[in-house]
C-alpha cells in the first residue's frame, strides 16, 4: 500500500496494492473540509476495504460534501460502492469515528518510537497485532499526526527555500567579487580613482544628468550602468554615482576601472566615504541597529514562530522572512538620505540594481514636477492586474489606529526602482525626519504597522510629495510572473525585475532574461572565469 500527499495538501492518493490498478484518489477542493478529515476517510476506506476492489473512487468531492462535518458522513460519500450499495457505513465501527473526531491533543501525541513512522510499518503492525478497533484508531491518528507534522515542516522549508533562493548570493556572483578583489590588489589599473581627477568637478555640476545607484551586486550594477550609458543620446552628460558598502568597494572599483563607460562619468564610493556618514549621529544606522534588535525578538523569536502548530506554513515562512537581514540593509534605506549625501545636487534619478534602461533618460529632467519631490509611477492602475493592484492598504496595516487615522486605504501606491528626486524641493520638507519617526513608531508597536521592506515607510514619508509620471518610464513586475510579454517589456523605457525571479538567478524567467543579459559581455575574462553564462 502506498500513499501520496501532494505538497499543496490538496491531493491524496492511496494505492492499496502493488502494481494493480486499484487506487483511490481524492482532491480536496472544499474549504469547509479539513485536510485531515478527508485523509482519515481515504485511509479508512483503503484499510477496511483493502481486499475489495477499490476502483478509481472519487475524483473530486467538491460540491458533494458541502454538508458533511464528520468523518462518518464523509466516509459514506467517499466510500466505494459494491453492486450499487455503499459499503463503508456498515463496516466501520463507531469507536473509530469517535477517536478520530476528537481534537488532537498535542501533549498526548508523544512522537515516540511506538508510533509507526510510515504506512508500511503501520500495516505490518496491524497485521501482526490484530488490535481492537480503538487501538487501531489511536495508532492511525498518531501516525497521521506525525505525517502531517512532517509535511508541515517540509512546507515551511519549501517556502523558506524559495526565499533563500532569491536572496542569497549565487556562487558565480561571489566568485566575481573575489576575482575582482584579487585584481584590485594585483593590478594598478584596477585601482584608478573613479572618476579621474580632471572629471571630479562634474560630480557636483548641475548641468549634468546625475544618476544614483546603490548596490552591492557588481554584475547587476554593471548592467544598469552599461544599459544607461549605451542608450543615452548624450553619454558625455551622464554622471552615475554608484554607492556601495565597505566589502564591495574594492571589487566594484576594480570593475569600473577596467570597464570604463567613457564618455560617461562613473563615480564609485562606499558609504563610509561620505562626509555626512562619518560625522556624528546618523539616523539610518541607529534605526538599522534598533530594527535588527526588534526583529530578532519579533513574536518571541524564530523558535516561537516555528513552534506555533496552528499557523499556516506560508505565514510562518513570512514571519521568519521578516527577520531576514535582507530587509534591513543600509543599502535599502539609504535613498531616504539623498539630500544629505549629495548636498550640491538639485535633481537626481535614483535607480535600483534590478532594472535595465532601454531608452535615453534625459527627458526625465524636462518633466515638470509641480513642486513635488518624488517622480514615480503609480502601481494601482494598469492592465497587469497582479502587479498593478497596489494601494496603501496593500502595504500598511489599516487595523492599526495610527495608520487608519492618518492615511487613506485606497490611495494609490507608487514604486521605487526608477524615481526622479528633486533634492531642492526635498530639502524644504521634513521627509527624512518623517521617515525615521515612522520607523520608530513601527518598532515601538512591535512591527505591527508594516512588516517588510522600505516601501511602506516611503509611502508614508513621501505622502503628498509624489508626482506621478508616465508608466512608460518604469515597467514593473518582470520578476513576478512569466506572462509579461517580451514585446511589452521591450517597449518600456526602463524595465524592473522586482520580485523574486532576479535575472542573475537560476529562477529567472527564461524569455525575459535576454533583456538583461544583452548588457553582459560573456566574453569578458572575469565573467567567463566565474562561469556566468547567458542561459
Ligand atoms: C498561533 O497562530 C494562531 C493562528 O494565527 C494564533 O491565533 C495564535 O495566537 C498563535 N499562538 C501563539 C502561541 O502565538
Ligand atoms: C498574467 O497572469 C496573471 C495570472 O494568471 C493574470 O492575472 C494577469 O492578468 C496576466 N498578465 C498579463 C499581462 O497577461
Ligand atoms: C518640519 O518640522 C519642524 C519641527 O517639527 C516644523 O517646525 C516645520 O514647520 C516642518 N516643516 C515643514 C515644511 O513641514
Ligand atoms: C495590525 O494592527 C492591529 C492593531 O494594532 C494588530 O492587532 C495586528 O496584529 C496588526 N497586524 C499585523 C499583521 O501586524
From TrEMBL:
Entry-linked SUPFAM superfamilies: Nucleotide-diphospho-sugar transferases
EC number, as in UniProt: 2.4.1.-
InterPro entries membership: GAUT, Glyco_trans_8, Nucleotide-diphossugar_trans
Gene Ontology molecular-function annotations: polygalacturonate 4-alpha-galacturonosyltransferase activity
GO BP terms, alphabetized: cell wall organization
Main location: Golgi
Keyword Cell wall biogenesis/degradation: yes
Membrane topology: Single-pass type II membrane protein
One Pfam family named in its UniProt record: Glyco_transf_8
Subcellular location: Golgi apparatus membrane
Top-rank taxon: Eukaryota
GO cellular component terms attached to this protein's record: Golgi membrane
Claim: Cell wall biogenesis/degradation is one of the keywords in the record: yes
UniProt entry keywords in alphabetical sequence: Cell wall biogenesis/degradation, Glycosyltransferase, Golgi apparatus, Membrane, Transferase, Transmembrane, Transmembrane helix
Spans traversing the lipid bilayer: 37-58
Pathway assignment: Glycan metabolism; pectin biosynthesis
Family (UniProt): Belongs to the glycosyltransferase 8 family.
Protein name: Hexosyltransferase
Organism listed in the record: Sesamum alatum
Amino acid at each position: 500500500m502506498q500513499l501520496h500527499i501532494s505538497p499543496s495538501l490538496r491531493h491524496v492518493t492511496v494505492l492499496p496494492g502493488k502494481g494493480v490498478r486499484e487506487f483511490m484518489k481524492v482532491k480536496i477542493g472544499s474549504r469547509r473540509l479539513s485536510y485531515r478529515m478527508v485523509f482519515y476517510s481515504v485511509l479508512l476506506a483503503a484499510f477496511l476495504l483493502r481486499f475489495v476492489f477499490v476502483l478509481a473512487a472519487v475524483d473530486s468531492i467538491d460540491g458533494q460534501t458541502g454538508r458533511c462535518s464528520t468523518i462518518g458522513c464523509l466516509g459514506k460519500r467517499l466510500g466505494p460502492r459494491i453492486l450499487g450499495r455503499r459499503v463503508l457505513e456498515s463496516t466501520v465501527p463507531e469507536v473509530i469515528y469517535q477517536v478520530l473526531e476528537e481534537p488532537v491533543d498535542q501533549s498526548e501525541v508523544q512522537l515516540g518510537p511506538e508510533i509507526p513512522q510510515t504506512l508500511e510499518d503501520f500495516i505490518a503492525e496491524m497485521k501482526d497485532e490484530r488490535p481492537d478497533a480503538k487501538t487501531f484508531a489511536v495508532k492511525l491518528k498518531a501516525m497521521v499526526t506525525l505525517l502531517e507534522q512532517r509535511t508541515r515542516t517540509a512546507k515551511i522549508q519549501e517556502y523558506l527555500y524559495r526565499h533563500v533562493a532569491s536572496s542569497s548570493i549565487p556562487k558565480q556572483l561571489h566568485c566575481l567579487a573575489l576575482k575582482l578583489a584579487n585584481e584590485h590588489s594585483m593590478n594598478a589599473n584596477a585601482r584608478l580613482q573613479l572618476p579621474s581627477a580632471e572629471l571630479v568637478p562634474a560630480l557636483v555640476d548641475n548641468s549634468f544628468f546625475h544618476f544614483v545607484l546603490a548596490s552591492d551586486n557588481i554584475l547587476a550594477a554593471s548592467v544598469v550602468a552599461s544599459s544607461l550609458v549605451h542608450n543615452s543620446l548624450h553619454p558625455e552628460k551622464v554622471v552615475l554615482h554608484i554607492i556601495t558598502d565597505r566589502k564591495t568597494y574594492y571589487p566594484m572599483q576594480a570593475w569600473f576601472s577596467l570597464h570604463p563607460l567613457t564618455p560617461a562619468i562613473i563615480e564609485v564610493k562606499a558609504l563610509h566615504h561620505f562626509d555626512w556618514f562619518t560625522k556624528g549621529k546618523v539616523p539610518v544606522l541607529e534605526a538599522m541597529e534598533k530594527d535588527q534588535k526588534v526583529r530578532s525578538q519579533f513574536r518571541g523569536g524564530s523558535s516561537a514562530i516555528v513552534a506555533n502548530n496552528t499557523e499556516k506554513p506560508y505565514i510562518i515562512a513570512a514571519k521568519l522572512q521578516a527577520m531576514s537581514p535582507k530587509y534591513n540593509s543600509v543599502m535599502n534605506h539609504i535613498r531616504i538620505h539623498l539630500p544629505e549625501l549629495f548636498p550640491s545636487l538639485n535633481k537626481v534619478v535614483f535607480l535600483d540594481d534590478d532594472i535595465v534602461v532601454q531608452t535615453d533618460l534625459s527627458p526625465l529632467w524636462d518633466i515638470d514636477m509641480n513642486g513635488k519631490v518624488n517622480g514615480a509611477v503609480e502601481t494601482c492602475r494598469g492592465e497587469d492586474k497582479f502587479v498593478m493592484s497596489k494601494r496603501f492598504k496593500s502595504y500598511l496595516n489599516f487595523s492599526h489606529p495610527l495608520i487608519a487615522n492618518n492615511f487613506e486605504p485606497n490611495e494609490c501606491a507608487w514604486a521605487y526602482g526608477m524615481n526622479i528626486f528633486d533634492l531642492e524641493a526635498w530639502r524644504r520638507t521634513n521627509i527624512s525626519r518623517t521617515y525615521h519617526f515612522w520607523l520608530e513608531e513601527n518598532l515601538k508597536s512591535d512591527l505591527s504597522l508594516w512588516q517588510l521592506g522600505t516601501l511602506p515607510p516611503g509611502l508614508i514619508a513621501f505622502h503628498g510629495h509624489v508626482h506621478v509620471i508616465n508608466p512608460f518610464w518604469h515597467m514593473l513586475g518582470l520578476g513576478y510572473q512569466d506572462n509579461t510579454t517580451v514585446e511589452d517589456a521591450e517597449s518600456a523605457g526602463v524595465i524592473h525585475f522586482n520580485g523574486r525571479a532576479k535575472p542573475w538567478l537560476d529562477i529567472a524567467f527564461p524569455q525575459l532574461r535576454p533583456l538583461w543579459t544583452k548588457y553582459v559581455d560573456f566574453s569578458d575574462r572575469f565573467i567567463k572565469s566565474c562561469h556566468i553564462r547567458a542561459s
